[in-house]
């Protein structure tokens, strides 16, 4: 298996849909690529893919073709903005949203060939707390929980953290406040989440900052571009670059086998595959 060098694997998740998770994934990926990192972005929303729609890209093939044995993972990767590579998922395919153990292992096994092609793997998970979501998150080295200033977002983020803590024995999470009006609002939002987790769970949350509410993000989505590319001087783009700089400083795994193997092995274990 390749992937012997340390590779940063970051899962971006949030529990609730509509918190801007995919925008975070895309823009952090592009910002890291601007720093010279080789970045692969995996759309892990296996039933409702949207990274390709967000970026206006099309591959013709996707993960479903890999599962069917009709393509290799490197065959379906498509170039994205800033030189990133995107692994698209299929959209509207119920089978993809409910993968069995064999299929899950098939996806994971396909990653073994990509270790020499990336420095960072960003995994954009589906919303919710399904087994597919928790499998991807528990396998990643870093978890970024995206929250917005809505009661349902905080509640769902807490539910996700609780499941990951209880079922996957995870106890460390990074938190990003998205679409906030002021930096203080972001900090207050984080404090709300910490207040609940400190009371009921034995976990550590680290605040990594906020991304402001910015009309440029909506305009970029309409143009099917990353805001960091379409409006590089916008407040949101500046915030994403700041976040990417922090991500780049997070420690890499110390295992000599490299984190891509760790990611693969953990995913296979999560799928219940020996």
UniProtKB/TrEMBL annotation:
Entry keyword set: ATP-binding, Nucleotide-binding
One example of a Gene Ontology biological process annotation: negative regulation of cell division
Organism of origin: Saccharospirillum salsuginis
UniProt name for this protein: Site-determining protein
Alphabetical list of PANTHER family matching this protein: CELLULOSE BIOSYNTHESIS PROTEIN BCSQ-RELATED (PTHR43384:SF4), SEPTUM SITE-DETERMINING PROTEIN MIND HOMOLOG, CHLOROPLASTIC-RELATED (PTHR43384)
Any GO CC annotation of this UniProt entry: cytosol
Molecular-function annotations in GO: ATP binding; ATP hydrolysis activity
SUPFAM superfamilies per record: P-loop containing nucleoside triphosphate hydrolases (SSF52540)
Organism classification: Bacteria, Pseudomonadati, Pseudomonadota, Gammaproteobacteria, Oceanospirillales
């Amino acid at each position: 298996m390749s992937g012997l060098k340390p590779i940063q694997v970051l899962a971006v998740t949030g529990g609730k849909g509509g918190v801007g998770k995919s925008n975070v994934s895309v823009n952090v990926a592009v910002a890291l690529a601007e720093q010279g990192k080789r970045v692969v972005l995996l759309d892990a929303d296996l039933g409702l893919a949207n990274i390709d729609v967000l970026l206006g890209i099309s591959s013709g093939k996707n993960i479903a073709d890999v599962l069917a044995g009709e393509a290799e993972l490197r065959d379906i990767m498509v170039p994205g903005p800033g030189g990133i590579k995107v692994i698209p998922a299929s959209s509207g395919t119920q089978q993809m949203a409910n993968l069995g153990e064999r299929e899950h292992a098939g996806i994971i096994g396909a990653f073994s060939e990509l270790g020499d092609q990336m420095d960072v793997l960003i995994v954009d998970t589906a919303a919710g707390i399904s087994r597919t979501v928790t499998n991807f998150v528990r396998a990643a080295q870093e978890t970024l929980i995206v929250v917005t200033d809505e009661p349902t977002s905080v509640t769902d983020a807490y539910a996700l953290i609780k499941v990951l803590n209880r079922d996957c024995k995870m106890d460390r999470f990074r938190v990003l406040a998205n679409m906030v009006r002021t930096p203080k609002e972001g900090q207050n939002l984080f404090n709300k989440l910490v207040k609940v987790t400190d009371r009921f769970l034995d976990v550590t949350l680290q605040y990594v900052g906020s991304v402001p509410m910015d009309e440029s993000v909506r305009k970029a989505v309409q143009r099917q571009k990353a805001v960091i590319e379409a409006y590089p001087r916008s407040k949101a783009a500046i915030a994403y670059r700041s976040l990417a700089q922090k991500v780049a400083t997070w420690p890499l795994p110390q295992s000599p086998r490299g984190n891509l193997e760790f990611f693969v092995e953990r995913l296979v274990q999560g799928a219940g595959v020996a």
